[in-house]
Design goal:
By secondary structure, the chain is mainly β. The protein has a single domain (8-184), classed as Jelly Rolls. It has helices at 29-37, 64-77, 113-118, and strands at 8-11, 19-23, 41-46, 50-56, 87-96, 102-106, 121-130, 137-139, 142-144, 158-162, 167-169, 172-175, 177-187. The longest helix is centred in the middle third of the chain and has 14 residues, at 64-77. It is globular and about 40 Å long. Mean pLDDT is 85; it is low at 190-196.
């Protein structure tokens, strides 16, 4: 893994307050290939707004500490959300390999009803590491609200955006698209707020 790679902050041309961060070559191609080869199996996930596969991967947590550092660097350079020291990170590896697999428009802020009910911790940032080259697939483009064009990443690149960004993966046409996703959660500002 390459250390000390610069974070490029890219503001939206449609909304200058809206920005994303990209770290080129965050993980080396060799590291990504070893990670993909360590996948035990892929399990399909089908919901009303998503069709994709999730990896059965051991020791997933060991990849997350460096991602947390990159997220904190992006936060310092852009949004400056306070209290990111009291955080938790969750992660998953996803694959789109069957034509038509997609993930419709959504936000990552709250991912289950228990989280909404307790309202103590929310996702602050989402991070995506691309695990293959853009030439490996057609379709399955990452579109982020406020950005006119799909976000194209090379194998090993890291993308960071706030969990409030609405985004989607367009339907896969052919090939395979794989990503490692991580979400940084922290305490909500109004953690004492009661949700009725």
């Amino acid at each position: 893994m390459n250390k000390g790679m610069p974070i490029v902050v890219i503001p939206s041309k449609l909304d200058p307050c809206n920005s994303i961060g990209i770290v080129r070559g965050f993980w080396s191609v060799d590291f990504v290939d070893r990670l993909l080869n360590s996948v035990i199996s892929w399990r399909p996930i089908v919901s009303k707004n998503s069709k994709r596969e999730v990896a059965n991967l051991s020791n997933q947590h060991k990849y997350n500490s460096r991602i947390v550092g990159a997220i904190k660097g992006f936060n310092k350079a852009s949004y400056r959300i306070p209290d990111l020291n009291n955080n938790t990170i969750t992660s998953a590896m996803y694959r789109y390999s069957v034509p038509g697999q997609e993930y419709q428009w959504h936000e990552d802020l709250i991912y289950n009803l228990q989280m909404l009910k307790n309202w103590e911790r929310i996702r602050r940032y989402s991070a995506v590491v691309m695990l293959n080259d853009p030439d490996d697939y057609v379709g399955a483009d990452l579109q982020i609200e406020g950005f006119k064009n799909p976000i194209k990443l090379q194998k090993g690149d890291l993308l960071i955006y706030t969990a409030l960004h609405a985004h989607r993966i367009t339907p896969l046409i052919s090939g395979t698209r794989a990503v490692y996703c991580a979400w940084l959660e922290s305490r909500h500002y109004a953690h004492t707020l009661e949700v009725q």
